[in-house]
Structures are given as C-alpha cells and as structure tokens.
Amino acid sequence: QVQVVESGGGLVQTGGSLRLSCTTSGNIGSVRAMAWYRQGPTKQRELVASISTGGARNYGDYVKGRFTISRDNDKKIGYLQMNSLQPEDTAIYYCNVGIGPDGVYIGLGSERSSWGPGTQVTVSS
Fold it and tell me: Sign of dihedral through CA atoms 92, 95, 101, 107?
C-alpha cells in the first residue's frame, strides 16, 4: 500500500505562518514528484506548489514569494512552508504524490495518483 497523510494545518492570524508536512509510506521505491493542492470553500481545486523528481519547483501565481515546497528524499516527507498567510489561503490542503497504489508512475493531479485526506488551514482576518 502507498499512503499519504498531511499534518500541520490549523488556525492562524493574517500574516502568520504554518508548516505542513506530507508523510508517505509504502514501497515507493524512488524519489517521486509531489505537489500540494488546495480547495477553498468557494473554489475549485488548484495547484499550490509542485516539485519534480529532479527538484524543479512550480508555484501557483497567488502563493509565489510566500510559500516554499521542499522534500526530504531520505525520509520521504514533503513540506509546505507558508508565510504571510492571508484569509484567501483558507482551504483544505492536499498532498499529492505521482505514484499509484500498485507502485506504477502516475502523473501529478491524476485521480489515480496518491492523495492524502487533507488538512484544514484557516486564516482569520
């Protein structure tokens, strides 16, 4: 089994910071691409940040300069450091890993890739 679990969400004031963690388990076998997505109460799911197997990073337009995605390849834990949080960042944040339950590569964002159950981030005004 491949499992993905997020942690670190919570309530924070505008301008505050949170660090989300994405813990993975199972026989992943090698470094995999990973991403953070989020879904706000009135929005569709959107990409927050991604990191490729080679370490290339992409960020959503509204989080550039504020959020940083990183990964510990040995521990197989992903992170999302969120600074200067705004009320618009309020959402459920999901970790996504580019591997299916059978260990075969699947692109990020696919429903067949591995997703965590999400962690709630709430930013108060």
Answer: positive
Confidence of residue 1 (pLDDT cuts 50, 70, 90): confident
In angstroms, how far is CA 1 from the centroid of its own chain? Answer: 20
Q: What is the C-alpha to C-alpha distance for residues 16 and 121, in angstroms, rounded to an integer?
A: 12
Sign of CA dihedral 97, 21, 48, 41: positive
The answer on pLDDT for 29 being more than 80 is no
Beta-carbon count within 10 A of 115 CB = 16
The C-alpha atoms of residue 72 and residue 87 are separated, in whole angstroms, by: 29
Could you write out the three-class secondary structure of the chain?
A: CCEEEEECCEEEECCCCEEEEEEEECCCCCCCCEEEEEECCCCCCEEEEEECCCCCEEECCCCCCCEEEEEECCCCEEEEEECCCCHHHCEEEEEEECECCCCCECCCCCCCCEECCCEEEEEEC
CA distances from 108 to 7, 24, 83 (A): 20, 15, 24
